[in-house]
Design a protein that fits this description.
heterodimer, A: 252 residues, mainly alpha, B: 506 residues, two-stranded antiparallel sheet, 74% helix, 2% strand
């Protein structure tokens, strides 16, 4: 325990002044950046990457925006795994601590409440629009989800009383909904066309919109849950051990 | 093509999708999570066995995700090395799943703070299942950006698992692990950016033919290698490994030491010996070999100096990882397939032996409440099965016949002598001797039973805590006898190997 405290203190003190090593390190980092910058500056720009291939197959993708086509169709498998990364972040955060809610109503001023009342529904609307827009312009699940997450953060900083009381189960359903639907649709496509995430061409647009909507909801909840910083009060299985409650006090 | 027929490459997705769904369900439902995880681990093992069978029948295969052909789409590939790594992960994964069940139920039933342990178990299962999916995805992926995504899944899941124990020491170590891991991932990603900018290709098969010697590609190779070396913890980038692995919960230590470090190593090896082969110079190979040699000696010396069993095992991982890098300079004499067989044997043997060791360390810790090496006297009397497992796993670490470690080291020795690079042989032999010292140092404690010793009356360990360790240790021992099977899988679709060992294996 002592050594841990010591090392924590050492880490705290470390940031306060630059010593010779840090200056040397800084210098070396600058050198590295310069070298990498020069390389990328002088690199021959002979290829257009995969832009041509995307443009050629755009019509078969079911959406008009090339970004959405790449994200959800051509490289949908990447996005499937990325959505899992976001979920993993929440599970990781939940495993560390309980969400620190104060449990009392905050002293919220009328201006703040007004802003929240005005902005939150508007943000939901914007998020829905962004998801819808993803099929032909810039937008999509991640953008819509980010707006939803921001709405969640706004609610959280207002410390509304109903937030800590949200039970864990609906929250978990919301978090898993997008990723699970994504996997289910991927497997559904596997049965239909023989390829994981190989959408049937005429249904591609609809399926992509469905995935994006579900994922936007889950991503929004994910970001808001990360801001809340821990798991809800009741997120653990019912105790099988009758002595559990007496144990609770011994835990410092 | 019908995706469900025998020869269909679509089966390849099952080792990824099955744990993925299991992970989601484990998070969603908080009851019966063990049943879900166990079912997924068993199904994963069956799926991997099926893939092996398929590989032997039809040779290497490619699976195009969504039906999009490369260069646009993402490809999965199953070939000898990938399937062997999948097998390693599936077998170890099943053992870990069973062991973790025993571990958590023991802690919940027998110790105080049951709530805390229940919470740990509740988050362990989804994290572990998603980590398994990420590892399988890494071994199968054939797309340089998709590989980054799998690295990210592994990094985040592994760091969260490492922090699960909740002790300040483990939180500090796992936070450092998270930072190191992310730094490694981002360095790798920067390399991918360089590569994509100069080639415009992400698919590994096509990339192989586009790689030309230029500053951009060389920078990409350097960045990706450094990122992966950081994740693989090769000396001198190993600083994060011992505290992280030693302070995590026992099942998590097994996962981190047995499987996670192998993932980034496998990727590094693939890049060096399949994609960037033209760029690799002898000096670069020698450099890696030298770092590997330093790792073997430094890790072993540190392992000898430790006072805690788990730290000793963690430093032994640092040492054993060095052997994988010694294989690099030996690749010059032969085609890369010989190196593949060395690396695969060392990796398989180490995965089995090291998971057995960490499981034993966890069992000893649960039994005694500590793992100070000097106070381990007489454990043999109360924990005979784990001590037996420790001994057998030690045999594999030392490289005595007939273990998998022996086959790996034998191949290393013969190729270092035939290529007249005897100095590597010297390092290998010294490393084995040092391993013998640190293994026996603990072993002798186990067998010394003091005069006034009485078998402690603490609750007996569940068989779930003892048998997985023994089974993993036995696998590492008998893998050497069955060496021709992995060789056969490795050689499928690659005719070079049959000529390398015309007279069979030792």
């Amino acid at each position: 325990m002592k050594t841990e405290k010591k090392s924590i203190r050492r880490i705290r003190n470390r940031g306060k002044r630059l010593d010779a090593w840090q200056l040397l390190l800084l210098f070396l980092l600058l050198c590295l950046t310069t070298v990498l910058g020069t390389i990328i500056w002088t690199m021959p720009e002979n290829t257009s990457g995969l832009t041509d291939a995307v443009a050629r197959l755009q019509e078969q993708s079911g959406v008009e925006s090339p970004v959405t086509a790449v994200l959800l169709n051509f490289r949908g498998y990447d996005t499937l795994l990325e959505v899992m990364v976001l979920l993993l972040a929440v599970i990781g955060a939940w495993s560390l601590a309980k969400a620190p809610f104060s449990g009392q109503a905050a002293d919220t001023g009328p201006v703040q409440m007004g802003v929240v009342r005005l902005l939150v529904p508007l943000m939901f609307l914007v998020a829905a629009y962004l998801v819808w827009q993803g099929s032909h312009l810039a937008g999509g699940a991640f953008q819509g989800g980010a707006i939803l997450g921001a709405a969640g953060v706004l609610l959280l900083v207002t410390e509304l009383l109903f937030l800590p009381a949200i039970p864990a189960l609906p929250l978990r359903i919301g978090l898993v909904f997008g990723p699970l639907l994504f996997v289910v649709i991927a497997l559904f496509c596997l049965c239909l066309t023989g390829h994981l995430l190989g959408y049937p061409e005429q249904a591609a647009g609809g399926l992509i919109l469905l995935i994006e909507t579900a994922c936007a909801i889950s991503i929004g909840l994910t970001l808001a849950s990360l801001f809340a910083g821990g798991h809800p009060e009741d997120d653990h299985p019912q105790s099988v051990n009758p002595t559990e409650h007496s144990d609770k006090e011994e835990w410092p | 093509m019908n995706p469900f027929q025998l020869a269909s490459p679509t089966w390849m997705i099952s080792p990824i999708i099955l744990p993925l769904i299991a992970g989601l369900l484990c998070f969603l439902l908080n009851r019966r999570t063990f049943a879900i995880a166990l079912a997924a681990a068993v199904a994963n093992l069956l799926a991997v066995c099926f893939l092996t069978y398929q590989l032997l029948l039809f040779g290497p295969m490619r699976c195009h995700m969504g039906g999009w052909q490369p260069p646009l789409g993402i490809t999965l590939r199953s070939d000898g090395p990938a399937v062997l790594m999948l097998l390693m992960t599936a077998v170890t994964g099943l053992a870990i799943t069973v062991y973790a069940r025993g571990y958590f139920s023991h802690r919940i039933l027998n110790l105080r703070q049951a709530t805390q342990h229940q919470e740990q178990q509740r988050y362990f299962w989804p994290l572990w299942m998603l980590l398994l999916a990420g590892l399988n995805g890494l071994f199968l992926s054939n797309d340089i950006f998709n590989l980054y995504v799998t690295l990210e899944i592994i990094a985040i899941a592994a760091a969260s698992l490492a922090a699960l124990s909740g002790k300040p020491a483990s939180q500090l170590a796992s936070f450092r692990y998270l930072l190191v891991s992310l730094l490694g991932s981002l360095t790798y990603l920067l390399g991918v950016v360089f590569l994509y900018r100069s080639c415009g290709i992400l698919d590994l098969d096509i990339l192989q033919h586009h790689v030309a010697n230029g500053p951009g590609i060389r920078a990409a190779l350097a960045l990706m290698s450094i990122g992966l070396l950081l994740k693989t913890a090769l000396v001198p980038l190993h600083f994060w490994l011992p505290p992280t692995h030693a302070n995590a919960l026992a099942p998590v230590s097994v996962i981190l030491s047995g499987l996670v470090v192998k993932g980034s190593f496998y990727l590094l090896f693939r890049l060096w010996f399949e994609i960037f082969t033209q760029l690799i110079t002898p000096s670069a190979l020698n450099f890696m070999g030298t770092l590997g040699a330093v790792a073997i000696l430094w890790g072993a010396v540190q392992a000898m100096r430790q006072h805690r069993l788990k730290l000793m095992v963690a430093y032994s991982t640092v040492s054993q990882l060095g052997y994988l890098f010694i294989a690099f300079p030996l690749s010059r004499i032969d085609e890369s397939i010989q190196v593949w067989s060395i690396v695969i044997f060392m990796a398989l043997g180490h995965a089995c032996a090291k998971s057995a060791l960490f499981m034993v360390a966890g069992a000893v810790f649960l039994h005694l409440g500590h793992d100070r090496i000097k106070d381990l006297n007489g454990v043999r009397a109360s924990l005979p099965i784990p001590v037996f497992a420790y001994g057998i796993a030690g045999v594999s670490l030392m490289g005595l016949p007939p273990s998998a470690g022996f086959i790996g080291k034998w191949l290393l020795l013969t190729s270092s002598l035939t290529s007249s690079q005897w100095w590597w042989a010297l390092v290998i032999i010294t490393g084995s001797l040092l391993a013998m010292i640190y293994v026996f140092r603990v072993m002798s404690r186990f067998f010394v039973i003091p005069e006034d010793y009485s078998v402690t009356t603490s609750a007996p360990l569940s068989p779930l805590l003892e048998w997985p360790a023994l089974i993993m240790a036995l696998i590492s021992l008998f893998l050497g006898l069955a060496a021709s099977w992995p060789m056969k899988i490795l050689a499928t679709g690659n005719t070079a190997l049959t000529q390398v060992f015309p007279g069979g294996l030792p």
